[in-house]
């Protein structure tokens, strides 16, 4: 055992009236919701990067956290893993997620970085033998180092493209070795700053070819998990190619990958794209590309991605309603891509942030499930579109404009608008949250 979380007890479910800070009030892993254990519905994951690699900086100030594992040696990387798995155990977290650069120090060259990754992968595997925590997904950090300043797969330098391909292969191998349920690609620098030096068509073709190589390699090594893209409109690039779910779907269709790749949707990224979280989830499920989510929130008074822990169950219930309505997760889960505030210095802050986030999501899940089981919203939705169930309406979809026009003239069609009943349905929703 390390000393970092000394005297912090394992967090257990104690109910809504518990005065204990280190207790779940709403997240009961064994509670059955819609025929499934809550733990199996939510599939919580801890993000390695924000919890153990982030130093507490922001655009205007540097490190505020003083962690005993900060440094660039393999001994410190192993200490970081020891502390991480202790936290997973305290929380009873079923999953974690990591980038390569979160877990291993950067080497003097690619070969050394790869050896470091392989060594820490073996260390993770040994830690997992004594833990319930599994790997939800792995990924490669291809945005922080200066080599990625002009992109990875979209970089104008073919040597950077090659380095990116080698990096992703190594990370996919690590994810496969650890039994990961998914592999994620976030194109933080896959975009552009100015069109004055950018060839959009060439960069899109290179990104499409790169993703095809990822899919081919998945099948070559027998990786059973899903390949996921995480949409984001901008930041750090001025304009990123994976702007939102609709943009990603169009990209996948353009390169024939819509049956091979799904999306990992983040709350904060959805907001930056001008959407709601639930919109992005509903669109992804309707297109058949929903995979997983990154759970967090933005500060709505700030114009950037603040990655705060969720604390509004009513807001999150809308997202979980869409997930439940689509049948729930398959390989995906609820990853806390969230970080404590840079003034929250204590080990307890890191634990309690996750406790609050897990409780918020549990309340949201139960509210969404109760509303879905009630059936009122779905009945109203079905009633609104009931006219399309008639044989005449279905036949019209197989017709043409001239025939439809003739029918409108013959029947003297003059439809009257019908209420969408939004406020009534909002009142119905509010009964459950």
TrEMBL record:
<keyword id="KW-0119">Carbohydrate metabolism</keyword>
<dbReference type="InterPro" id="IPR036237">
    <property type="entry name" value="Xyl_isomerase-like_sf"/>
</dbReference>
<feature type="binding site">
    <location>
        <position position="266"/>
    </location>
    <ligand>
        <name>Mg(2+) 2</name>
    </ligand>
</feature>
<feature type="binding site">
    <location>
        <position position="269"/>
    </location>
    <ligand>
        <name>Mg(2+) 2</name>
    </ligand>
</feature>
<dbReference type="InterPro" id="IPR001998">
    <property type="entry name" value="Xylose_isomerase"/>
</dbReference>
<feature type="binding site">
    <location>
        <position position="337"/>
    </location>
    <ligand>
        <name>Mg(2+) 1</name>
    </ligand>
</feature>
<feature type="active site">
    <location>
        <position position="102"/>
    </location>
</feature>
<keyword id="KW-0963">Cytoplasm</keyword>
<dbReference type="GO" id="GO:0005737">
    <property type="term" value="C:cytoplasm"/>
</dbReference>
<keyword id="KW-0859">Xylose metabolism</keyword>
<dbReference type="GO" id="GO:0000287">
    <property type="term" value="F:magnesium ion binding"/>
</dbReference>
<feature type="binding site">
    <location>
        <position position="307"/>
    </location>
    <ligand>
        <name>Mg(2+) 2</name>
    </ligand>
</feature>
<feature type="binding site">
    <location>
        <position position="266"/>
    </location>
    <ligand>
        <name>Mg(2+) 1</name>
    </ligand>
</feature>
<comment type="subunit">
    <text>Homotetramer.</text>
</comment>
<keyword id="KW-0460">Magnesium</keyword>
<feature type="binding site">
    <location>
        <position position="230"/>
    </location>
    <ligand>
        <name>Mg(2+) 1</name>
    </ligand>
</feature>
<protein>
    <recommendedName>
        <fullName>Xylose isomerase</fullName>
        <ecNumber>5.3.1.5</ecNumber>
    </recommendedName>
</protein>
<dbReference type="GO" id="GO:0042732">
    <property type="term" value="P:D-xylose metabolic process"/>
</dbReference>
<dbReference type="InterPro" id="IPR013452">
    <property type="entry name" value="Xylose_isom_bac"/>
</dbReference>
<feature type="binding site">
    <location>
        <position position="294"/>
    </location>
    <ligand>
        <name>Mg(2+) 1</name>
    </ligand>
</feature>
<feature type="active site">
    <location>
        <position position="99"/>
    </location>
</feature>
<keyword id="KW-0479">Metal-binding</keyword>
<dbReference type="GO" id="GO:0009045">
    <property type="term" value="F:xylose isomerase activity"/>
</dbReference>
<keyword id="KW-0413">Isomerase</keyword>
<comment type="similarity">
    <text>Belongs to the xylose isomerase family.</text>
</comment>
<feature type="binding site">
    <location>
        <position position="305"/>
    </location>
    <ligand>
        <name>Mg(2+) 2</name>
    </ligand>
</feature>
């Amino acid at each position: 055992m390390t000393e970092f979380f000394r005297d912090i007890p394992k967090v257990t479910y104690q109910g809504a009236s518990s005065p204990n800070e280190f207790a779940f009030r709403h997240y009961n892993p064994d509670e059955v919701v819609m025929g499934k254990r809550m733990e199996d519905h939510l599939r919580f994951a801890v993000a390695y990067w924000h919890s153990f690699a982030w130093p507490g900086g922001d655009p205007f100030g540097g490190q505020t956290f003083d962690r005993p594992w900060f440094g660039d040696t393999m001994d410190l990387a192993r200490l970081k893993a020891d502390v991480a798995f202790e936290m997973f155990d305290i929380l009873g977290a079923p999953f974690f997620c990591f980038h390569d650069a979160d877990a291993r120090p950067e080497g003097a060259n690619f070969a050394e970085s790869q050896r470091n990754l392989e060594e820490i992968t073996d260390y993770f595997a040994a830690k997992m033998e004594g833990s319930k925590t599994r790997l939800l997904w792995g990924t490669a950090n291809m945005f922080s180092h200066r080599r990625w300043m002009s992109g990875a797969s979209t970089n104008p330098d073919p040597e950077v493209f090659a380095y990116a391909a080698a990096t992703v292969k190594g990370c996919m191998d690590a994810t496969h070795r650890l039994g990961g349920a998914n592999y994620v690609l976030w194109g933080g620098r896959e975009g552009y700053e100015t069109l004055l030096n950018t060839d959009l068509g060439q960069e899109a073709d290179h990104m499409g070819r790169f993703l095809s190589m990822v899919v081919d390699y998945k099948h070559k090594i027998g990786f059973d998990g899903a390949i996921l893209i995480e949409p984001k409109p901008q930041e750090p690039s001025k304009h990123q190619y994976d702007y939102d779910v609709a943009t990603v779907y169009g990209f996948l269709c353009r390169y024939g990958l819509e049956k091979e790749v799904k999306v990992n949707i983040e709350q904060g990224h959805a907001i930056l794209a001008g959407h709601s979280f639930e919109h992005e989830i509903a669109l992804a499920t309707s297109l058949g590309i929903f995979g997983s989510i990154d759970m967090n929130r933005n500060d709505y008074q700030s114009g950037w991605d603040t990655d705060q822990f969720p604390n509004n169950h009513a807001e999150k219930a809308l997202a979980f309603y869409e997930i439940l309505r689509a049948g729930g997760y398959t390989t995906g889960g609820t990853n806390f891509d969230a970080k404590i505030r840079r003034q929250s210095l204590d080990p307890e802050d890191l634990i309690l942030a996750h406790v609050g986030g897990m409780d918020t999501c549990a309340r949201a899940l139960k509210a969404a499930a109760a509303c879905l089981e009630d059936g009122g919203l779905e009945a109203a939705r079905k009633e609104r579109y009931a006219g399309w169930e008639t044989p005449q309406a279905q036949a019209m979809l197989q017709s043409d404009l001239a025939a439809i026009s003739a029918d409108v003239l013959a029947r003297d069609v003059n439809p009257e608008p019908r209420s969408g009943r939004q406020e009534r349905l909002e009142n119905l929703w509010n009964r459950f949250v």
